[in-house]
Design goal:
Blueprint lengths: L2 H11 L4 H11 L4 H6 L10 H14 L4 H5 L1 E4 L2 E4 L12 H12 L6 E4 L5 H9 L6 E5 L2 H13 L7 E5 L11 E6 L6 H5 L3 H6 L2 H4 L7 H13 E10 L8 H7 L1 E8 L5 E8 L1
Parallel strand pairs: 3-4, 3-6, 4-5, 6-7
Antiparallel strand pairs: 1-2, 7-9, 8-9
Helix pairs in contact: 1-2, 2-4, 6-7
Bound molecules: S-adenosylmethionine.
Length: 279
């Protein structure tokens, strides 16, 4: 069978999965977009390991596994990151938080930085690829399995263990009296009710721990705001990604004593990040 026939046959079977089938064929046969359309006459043996792999991957599409988990990677900020079912699939929206943090660090390269909820490690790795920091970044997650993958991404992106330190903990590193110049987080922030209205692909496959921030959704963010205040030096920055309807959390920042509080909107004027400076 030639590649084009494999594509057309599967497309006929699963017309709603056109994108997934194309991306899987590209991945298995190592083709870019142009090669997919121009080199599709190569013949494939039905008993070859690549063909069997292709069928296994298409089976997963059929049962609803998100394409990014099937491929095992996702691009974020132009870089390829390994992902699996233990971590959230990186979202483009998170580049807003990333760019705000990078903007601050570009003029403060000696800042001591802490990330809460690193998942696959996309944020600290992207930061270290953009800014030459003189101090290491500490990145925490409660999930041991997520950190295992984050370490693989650290290695893949050739970042040393001295420059990026991963720690397993509940929000903040334990028994640590360190103070930071900047703390940032894309925490779980979805409420119970909103969680159950998410797409089935998300509910069935993405880790709930990475999405649900408590019954109301803002419980973890409130803990981060409160505890960060004690972990930041005076003049230190806090930046947190929020849900579209959590702009009110700016008041929590103010209440606890942060100044220069801001809510940063995305291109569609949706609130995405809140920030403040410790007074
Ligand atoms: C929304 S994901 C963000 C992942 C990644 N930073 C990103 O932006 O794609 C939230 C992460 O916070 C972690 N997390 C949830 N509760 C936590 C807690 N109490 N302490 C530390 N990390 C936590 C989850 O395991 C998950 O990896």
């Amino acid at each position: 069978m030639i590649l084009r026939q494999i594509y057309q046959k599967n497309l006929k079977k699963y017309p709603q999965n056109q994108i997934e089938i194309k991306e899987i064929i590209k991945e298995v046969f190592d083709l870019n977009e142009l090669q997919f359309w121009t080199r599709n006459t190569q013949s494939i043996k039905s008993d070859s390991s690549k063909y069997r792999k292709l069928l296994r991957m298409i089976q997963k599409v059929k049962i609803g596994v998100p394409l990014d988990y099937i491929l095992g990677y996702k691009y974020f900020n132009g870089e390829k990151f390994l992902i699996n079912k233990n971590v959230l699939i990186p979202r483009e929206d998170t580049e807003i938080l990333l760019n705000k943090v990078i903007d601050i660090l570009k003029t403060n390269i000696s800042f001591k930085v802490l990330e809460i909820g690193t998942g696959s490690g996309i944020l600290p790795i992207s930061i270290l690829k953009s800014v030459k920091l003189t101090n290491p970044i500490e990145a925490c997650d409660i999930s041991k399995k997520a950190l295992y993958l984050a370490k693989k991404n650290r290695k893949k992106h050739k970042i040393s263990k001295e420059k990026l330190i991963f720690k397993q903990c509940d929000l903040f590193p334990k028994k640590n009296k360190d103070v930071y110049d900047l703390i940032f987080s894309n925490p779980p922030y979805i409420s119970e009710d909103d969680y159950w209205s998410l797409d089935n692909k998300i509910i069935n496959y993405e880790p709930r721990q990475a999405l649900c921030g408590g019954k109301r959704g803002d419980e973890i963010i409130k803990r981060i705001i409160k505890e960060s205040f004690h972990k930041l030096r005076i003049g230190g920055h806090l930046l947190i990604e929020i849900a579209y309807n959590q702009q009110y959390l700016i008041n929590e920042l103010k209440k606890i004593g942060f100044t220069h509080t801001k809510c940063h909107l995305d291109n569609n004027s949706i609130p995405r990040v809140i920030s403040g400076i410790k007074k």
